[in-house]
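Minutes, structural biology subgroup

Action item carried over from last meeting: produce the structure token record for Cd(2+)-exporting ATPase (Mordavella massiliensis). EB confirmed the sequence was re-checked against the source entry. Recorded below for completeness.
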Amino acid sequence: MTRELKIRSIIYGAGVAVYLCAILVTMNYTLPDMARFVWFLISYLLIGFDAFRKLEENFCQKKFLTEYTLMVLATIGAFGVGRYVEGVLVMLLFELGMMFEAYTTDNAKRSIESMINIRPEFATRKVRGKEFKVDPAALKIGHTIVIRPGERIPVDAVVTSGTSSIDTKALTGESMPQTVWPGDRIYSGCINLSAVIEAKVTALYVDSTVSRIMEMVEDAQNQKAESENFVTRFSKIYVPVMLICSLAVMIYPPLTFSYGNWDTWIYRGLIFLIIACPTGLVMSVPIAFLGGIASAARHGIVVKGGNYLEDLAKADTFIFDKTGTLTEGVFRVTEVKPVGMSEQELLRIAAHVECHSNHPIAQSLKEAYQGEIQETKVYRMREIPGYGVNATFEGNRVYIGNKRLMERQKVDYDEVKKTGTPVYVAIGDKYAGYILIADQVKEDAKPTLQYLQERCRAVLVMLTGDTEGASKEVAKEMKMDYAYTNLMPEDKLEQLEDFMGLQDSGEKLVCVGDGINDAPVLARADVGIAMGALGSAAAVEAADVILMEDELSRIVDAIKIAKETLRVVSQNITFAMVVKVLILILAAVGYFGMWEAILAEVGVMFVVILNAVWVVRYQV
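Output recorded by EB:
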């Protein structure tokens, strides 16, 4: 619970305690009217503290006719006619509804308390041949740093010595590691995989890529307009209508058919104003959204606020990252093409030669082989960054790598031009075949996108840092409307802004991603959806909805729950309004008093709570 919500709860609780004490004392003792007034006024001010604060904020923003305006006017009117108990009770019920909403949002946010783990904890600086661990923020432009295998690059730099493979997935989304040579730029947040490299710092820590991404996330969240909830939209019409009606009740009868009977009709007008308070209405909406959020949680979906369910139900544009979102984000062998041997034999040789490598390609080869690997048969293994590996296996020198390695060894090979990464194998100077490795599309990706196109009539867009070839192939398979490739985080944000600029006020845009490179667009979209199980902490922190199981089909579940929640919200609002109108009519003609109205409000709340339970139990 946030500090602000704790303070608000304590003040509200204190107000309720004072109110109950005031009722008990006035029931057992006869107090002067002024003493009763002061006692109930203290409880009223404590219970309504947050309502007065919101009213002040609305006035500062020139929003004069809101539910808070009506609530304060009505309860002040109750005090004006000496109905202290009823006036405080109306405010108590109203604030209870607002507290429900606040607790719902706070609980959802507290379930996502991940710290951003992309920022490096230390840097190794080299000075006159000696190495020192320092805070990355202490590095200056021109300093020499050393990055060992497995370490995260602390700041943007240029490689001065060594060759290695760099995992850039955190920034670009590209699964395949990139090879860097002396003179190549490297970026903070990426991970060094295979060899020690030295580099010269080219940007301060505050100006490095990771820091700039997190600044973009904060800026995007500040630019993101909070969607107006139903109560706020409804109040713009409801409040002025109720004020006019209450004035009509006070003024019209004494001037016409009940000429001169001002006291009776002013009293009835105040009763009308008090009954007009949207307490049941205010309660009905957050309770329904609470049910929707609870239902989503049952299905492994964390929603950070009811307004995101509302926006999700209206979404008509969906933007997806590729790697780790539409695809598995891991390499698998998709084709084995041997020359002069069986497929299993080629896999056996490749898996043994790669057995000592930590490269993702080596891991996928060992996984595809599935047999027992006898490491004692492999010796003199050598890994050449940017080319591949070679080792002696069963008396033969075996070379496994890309086409550059084949050309370097002067092996006559057949170049493969298919989607994926071909791994060529040569035994001595003879070509032994190739193994194709590619990222696999998730099983539930196609049916999920098909649902969005058919049921939501959605525009489907891919924004990815991956290369054009593999990305366009996936976009074509998924029948997506647009695909943009080779994008850095700032490029993704720019494209997203272009799509948001084409929307009108009733249309909503959803962005789905899993990496830190997706965090800015997740924060800026109307609804950001993060793949929570394997996604980066930055993406989870920036998103509004988190899929805890990394299953794209959960998006369909979330949309169904959102639409069902809005249906229940509509039912609750209709029921609350029908009861409200009936009570107002009866009050205007003198058949309904304040206590009867309050009992009716409690009845409305009981019914809407039961209706919200249906959403919690909703099965997608």
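Discussion: The first helix runs from residue 3 to 28.
Next step: EB to file the record with the rest of the batch.
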